[in-house]
Hints:
The chain contains five helices and no strands. By secondary structure, it is mostly helical. Helix 1 (14-25) crosses helix 4 (56-70). The longest helix is centred in the C-terminal third of the chain and has 15 residues, at 56-70. The chain is flat, with a radius of gyration of 18 Å. The N and C termini lie far apart (42 Å).
Amino acid sequence: xxxxxxxxxxxxxxxxxxxxxxxxxxxxxxxxxxxxxxxxxxxxxxxxxxxxxxxxxxxxxxxxxxxxxxxxxxxxxxxxxxxxx
Length: 85
């Protein structure tokens, strides 16, 4: 952090985080299966998911669905008002 000696600010790669979240949500097919990864010519579950959903629009839609289903797209203000009532 500029001006604050000895302090570091962690950086988050949001895209990598979101893809890892999507991989964690997929139950079937097993994205960690080495044979399946080899059949697509990739070595990681994240790359396999990207290879399996090769349409960018569908990939974004799938990510939005995962976040919505997981509750990460909830409106915080609405949640607070519901909790108050």
